[in-house]
Each structure stands twice: as C-alpha cells, then as structure tokens.
Amino acid sequence: MIERLIDRLRNTRPPEDLPAEALARLPPDVARQLFPEPLIPAAVLVALVDRPTGWEVLLTRRTDHLRDHPGQISFPGGRIDAADGGTVAAALREAREEVGIEAVFIDVVGHLPPHAVVTGFAVSPVVALLRPGFSLLADPVEVAEIFAVPLSYLRDPGHLIWSERTVRGLMVPVCAIQYGPHHIWGATAHILNTLREALNEAEQ
Q: What are the chain's domains?
C-alpha cells in the first residue's frame, strides 16, 4: 500500500503559486465569495508512521488559547516564512518546532493537492515517512496532544461524516471524522480524505 502511494506521489511538486492553485480547485464564484482577501501560503506535514499494527498518520490537538483553530485537530504545520525557502522547508521546520521531529528522520514522499482554508490560508500538504528512531516532544504553547490514526481506519469510507454549513453566505460541504474522543473536521479532515483518495487510486 505505502509503496504504491510513494510511486504515485514520487513526481509531485509543490505549487509554484500556492494561493492561486488552491483557489483554482474551487468554482470561480465560490472562490471569490469565500476568499475575498489574498490567501497566506502555509504547509503541513502529513507524517506516516510504520507501526507493528500497520501504518498511521500523525496528528496534533492544538491548545485552546491559540488565535487560529484553537483546540482543533491538525497536522504539524503553519505559514511559510520568507526564510524557509519553500514548502518542504516550512513543513519540516514546523514539525520540529511543534512536535520535536528532526528533519533527519523525515523522508519526504511528495505532495497532495493544496487546500484553501476559510481562515485565510492556502495549505500545501507535504507527505512524508518517518524513519525509526524519531522522538516526539510537544510544544506546550501550541500542542496539547500528539496522537496517530491508523490508515486502515481512515480508508474506511464509513468513518467519513459529510454535512453542510453556511460560510460567508454559501452552503459548503464539510467533512469530519470521529476517532475515539477526537473530532477531526475542517481542512484536516479534507486533507485526510484527499490522502484516502490517493491511497485508493494508488491501488487501482
């Protein structure tokens, strides 16, 4: 499964114009109404871990006092700073700062399509495998909890919860996943669904 995913993502590259490509995945009228202001480029690390029980994807629960997405489930990541030099560098930096994973333990596989987030970000998901020997250390300011969800659980379409909500006057589809006590929704759930689709396509 993972080998085929690697083959599928091997030649993918981060978008040259991340905000533009994120918006291009939406109908033009929807993009204009939902995102009247320029999007801020951001990157997240979709880190896959090989466990004895199968592959898992690493997630965090953000602390409740943060300005952006307090208490929500997310990937390690954040805005792309000018000093980062690119999407991958930003994802690796954020992973080190938020959950303590050093870059030497991260093998980047490729990139999933970008997502426009209603809080004003254009997010590029960087898919990577974690090498054995990595350690985790949560940043107490940003991360309340680190946990992992089995890919086998995410691949079950019965675990996807679809609904609609009104955002800036538009009804938009919202994806969610319930994993134990964790309610995963918003951009994180949509990225996980994109990962699920990539895994399924890789096995066809």
A: 2-152 (3.90.79.10)
